[in-house]
Every structure is written in C-alpha cells, then in structure tokens.
Design a protein that fits this description.
Elements: E1 2-7, H1 12-28, E2 34-39, H2 44-53, E3 59-61, H3 70-74, E4 82-86, E5 92-95, H4 99-110
Parallel strand pairs: 1-2, 2-3
Antiparallel strand pairs: 1-4, 4-5
Helix pairs in contact: 1-4
Length: 112
C-alpha cells in the first residue's frame, strides 16, 4: 500500500501534519506501507531544506512547478495537504485523511 502525499515547504498545515506522517511511516513501513511525497514547491532549496528538517525519509518528487505540478493535476489536487491511499493495484481506496484517521485507515487496510 502506498500513500501519495501532496505537500509543499511553504504550506503551514502540511508542515504541521508531517510529524504525524513520519510517525505512521516509521511504524508501518516494515509492514508494507510506502509513501511518495509530491511537492508543489518551486524553490528546490526550500523544498530540500523542508525534507531534511521534517525528516521525510521516503521518496520525494517535484517538478518545481507549484500548482502546475502534473502529478497534482492527475490527482485533481485543489488544496494541500492532500493524501491518497493506493492499494497494491494502484486504486485509490481513501483520501484526505490526517493524523489519527490516517493511522486508523492504514491499520485497517494492512489487516486485510
């Protein structure tokens, strides 16, 4: 299972949520959870600084195009943070969960 996490270094709510996502990743990565971070940043330095500061150890991608990010367009992202949980086949099984709700959904899906 994979979480596609849309965020940006300049997004306050994203940065507040990042520690929750880190905790979930650290707890469940060994059980099959992966995360791909997709940034809507335009400044590579600020993006990389945020990854380091927030300890985001999973794969991070960005075309540094802000809201013109093609992956965000593909997922029809209109606000961030935005999370999409994909099952093994790549189907979206949940979206826009945060904190305890996100953790509970991961536990539920990993139990299947």
């Amino acid at each position: 299972m994979t979480i596609v996490d849309f965020w940006a270094s300049w997004c306050g709510p994203c940065r507040i949520e990042n520690p929750n996502v880190v905790k979930i990743y650290n707890e469940f990565h060994s059980k099959g959870l992966n995360i791909i971070g997709v940034s809507l940043d335009q400044d590579a330095n600020k993006w990389k600084e945020a990854i380091a500061k927030d300890k985001l150890t999973w794969t991070q991608v960005s075309n540094l195009k802000g809201w013109q990010e093609p992956i965000a367009s593909q997922y029809k992202v209109e606000a961030i943070p935005a999370t999409f949980i994909l099952d093994a086949s790549g189907k979206v099984v949940a979206k826009d969960l945060k904190g305890a709700e996100l953790r509970a959904k991961i536990i539920e899906l990993l139990a299947k």
